[in-house]
Write a structure and sequence with these properties.
Length: about 130
């Protein structure tokens, strides 16, 4: 899979979050592959139904926090691309992994996990992206 497609899908994931757009979030997640989501402090959500219900609850909350992604790096693994990035969540920084698979000629999310980061990265140079 093209890693730039996965980086674009990663951006779309965070845009859906920031705009609290449940329909856009639904379009990002895979439909024919198993999906897993681990929100900070939550148990693992192991079905598409559970994952989408979690996003509907999170995104329908008017007090949902703003998350700004930083330092996105794509790692190609044959048919999968893993994007590792940092999420600025208010004064906190989280580390996140987002795993994408090709589905219907698009990069679809099959795994998201985020957790607190004890050592935030240095500021990111404007427009930098890394593919490995």
């Amino acid at each position: 899979m093209d890693p730039e497609l996965a980086l674009f899908a990663n951006d779309a994931f965070y845009l859906a979050f920031s705009e609290q757009d449940v329909a856009a979030m639904d379009r990002i997640w895979a439909r024919r592959h198993p999906v897993i989501c681990i929100h900070p402090g939550w148990p693992a959500l192991l079905s598409r139904t559970a994952v989408m219900e979690s996003w509907e609850r999170i995104l329908s909350n008017p007090d949902a926090p703003e998350i700004v992604p930083h330092h996105a790096r794509a790692f190609v693994m044959e048919r999968l691309v893993m994007v590792v990035c940092y999420e600025a969540l208010g004064s906190q920084m989280l580390t996140a992994t987002n795993l994408f698979v090709a589905e219907d000629d698009k990069a679809r999310l099959v795994h998201h996990q985020a957790g607190l980061c004890a050592q935030p990265p240095d500021p990111e140079p404007e427009g930098s992206r890394t593919v490995q």
